[in-house]
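Section 3.1: Structural characterization of target chains.
Under the original work plan, the team committed to producing a structural model for every single-chain target entering the pipeline before any wet-lab resources were allocated. The record below documents one such target. The sequence was received from the expression subgroup and is listed exactly as submitted; it comprises 357 residues.
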Amino acid sequence: MLEKFIKSILPASGVEQLKKLVEGITNSTLRVAVSSRLLSSLYYILLSKDFSRENQAVIYGKLKYIEDLQSNLESQYLLRRNIHRLEKGIIMKPRRDIFALDYIEETVKCYEKSVLEKGKDISESTELQWAHDVLEQYFNVAGSNSVIEEAKRKFLALDKPSKNEIQRVPYKRNTDERSPVNYDDLLKLAYRRRSVRWYLQKPVPRELIDKAVAVATLSPSACNRQPFEFHIFDDPDVVKRVASIPMGTKGFSHNFPVIVVVVGKLRAYFSERDRHVIYIDGSLASMSFMYALETLGLSSCPINWPDIEDRERVMAATLGLEPDERVVMLISVGYADPEGMIPYSQKKELDLLRRYH
């Protein structure tokens, strides 16, 4: 609005001079702000609100993390993190006789709470069965210590799985077995996966999307917390509404059969240090998801999600997101239109993206 007004009262040369003046002031301000962390912080307090949403989201996530410890959730982030930490301790070479003293009590307490509050057979929950099996192995291999013995006593007092067909514990990698996919096939798949923007107006079976998500769940995740969800929309009217929110879909979003919104949850973490992990883990899972779609005859297009206040607000309202739930990206899905074109998108040469040290 202000830009239009300025253009209406100034000649083109005046507008250009004003732009250069503003750019000069901005550059000078940034040079001063970058000279120290304090000045950088003051810059974002006084002159820019670009990180205000992230600040609130991280704080909200920390509060939700604390609240969720007292809740009867189907999946518990603290339990997942600590059980994975135990796994890493078990596989160490050489393995220490005494380890995990600083969190074994917390882990057993969290496990006990989950078992008692769910009030169901541990065998019905793969997460609890995994926790049980790893804890059982930990107490079998850990040395004697008063802290460990007390935690073991509490663990053994709890119910065991009624059936345990699979032992969900660390295991040796079978190095004799070759990968079922060779490099050339993987390279062909990578070349085949292109960002497709034009789709046949043909419904996509949900079972195929579920298969692709199942592959995505096997992607690596920091401490196995998997702090993301795939919000999937296939109702034509809702798809058009959701697909119109991000930038970069103008002119073709109307033909998406399915739109997926990948959402990260900051409540998975107790500290600000992990605030970027939702984007790492969410992106790893998204790439696996898109490769899996290709094997199922489906195409996709990842859609960038820049942090723009008004669009964040609309998306949060549309999906019913809480402040700590952050959109990582969107992905359109469908059967590629054989008459539709895709960009060639020449990739950078290997030497530009790889550096040995």
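Strands lie at 228-233, 258-265, 299-303, 325-334.
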